[in-house]
Amino acid sequence: DTEVTQTPKHLVMGMTNKKSLKCEQHMGHRAMYWYKQKAKKPPELMFVYSYEKLSINESVPSRFSPECPNSSLLNLHLHALQPEDSALYLCASSQDRIAGNYNEQFFGPGTRLTVL
Amino acid sequence: SQQGEEDPQALSIQEGENATMNCSYKTSINNLQWYRQNSGRGLVHLILIRSNEREKHSGRLRVTLDTSKKSSSLLITASRAADTASYFCATAVAAGNKLTFGGGTRVLVKP
C-alpha cells in the first residue's frame, strides 16, 4: 500500500467550531507532515513528526493542534479558526531520516477547508 | 519563507514539444526534488537529485543541478496533455525532515 489517505475531502466550519483532519499511511514511514496550501501558491510546511514526536513546528498558531497517536496516523485539530485559514491542507509521509539523506515525500490528496 | 524561485511562472506548449522550467535556491542543500500537482490535488514525487549529482533522468524527465549557481532545471520531453499540471521544486537542507518548496510553474500542454 503506497497511499496516504486524508479525511474528510472537504470541510466547511464556522469560526467557533472544533473539527479534526485525519491522515493515515501504511507504508511504515516514520516521518509525517502537515502542509497548508493556498490557491496558486506552494505548500507551506506546518508540522513534522518523526517517530511520533513533534520535531518541527513552523511557528503555527495554537488554533492548529497536531497529534500523532501512532506511527500510521496523524491528526490536525482545529479550533477557533479564521477565514484566512481556508486552504488545502496536505498530509505527507516519508521514510525515517537516514543520516545525511532525505527521502521523497508521499502526499495525500488533501482536505479542502473553508472557514466561514 | 520560500527557498526556491521558479521560472517561468506559467508555460503553454503544444503536445509533443519540450517543456523546460528552472528553479533557483538560496542556501546550501542536501538534495533537490521535483513534484507535480494536478489541479487542487496532492503532490506526486517525480525525481530527487542529490547535491553531489549533476544530472538525472527518469523516463521523459531530465533534471540538472548546478550547485555553484544554486539552480536546477526540469525538462519534460515530448510533452502530453496529461503533463498539464503545476510543477514544484523543493529543497532539503541539512537540518531535519524539512522540504521548502519553490513558487511553482503552471504548465499547460495543448492537444
Q: Measured on Cα atoms, how large is the radius of gyration of chain A?
A: 14 Å
Structural class based on helices, strands and sheet pairing of chain A: mainly beta
Low-confidence stretches of chain B: none
Mean of residue pLDDT values of chain B: 91
Assembly state (oligomeric) = heterodimer
Number of helices of chain B: 0
Number of strands of chain B: 11
Largest interface: A-B, 30 and 26 residues
What this model shows, in words?
The complex is a heterodimer of chains A (116) and B (111). Chain A is 0% helix and 55% strand. By secondary structure, chain A is mostly beta strands. In chain A, strands 2, 4, 5, 6, 9, 10 and 11 form a 7-stranded mixed beta sheet that branches. In chain A, strand 7 and strand 8 form a beta hairpin. Chain B contains no helices and 11 strands. In chain B, the strands form 2 sheets. In chain B, strands 2, 4, 5, 9, 10 and 11 form a 6-stranded mixed beta sheet that branches. Chain B has a 5-stranded antiparallel beta sheet with strand order 1-3-8-7-6, with no helix packed on it. In chain B, strand 9 (85-92) and strand 10 (99-101) form a beta hairpin. Chain B is globular. Chain B starts with a strand and ends with a strand. The chains are: A mainly beta (116), B mainly beta (111). The interface between A and B is medium-sized, with 30 and 26 residues.
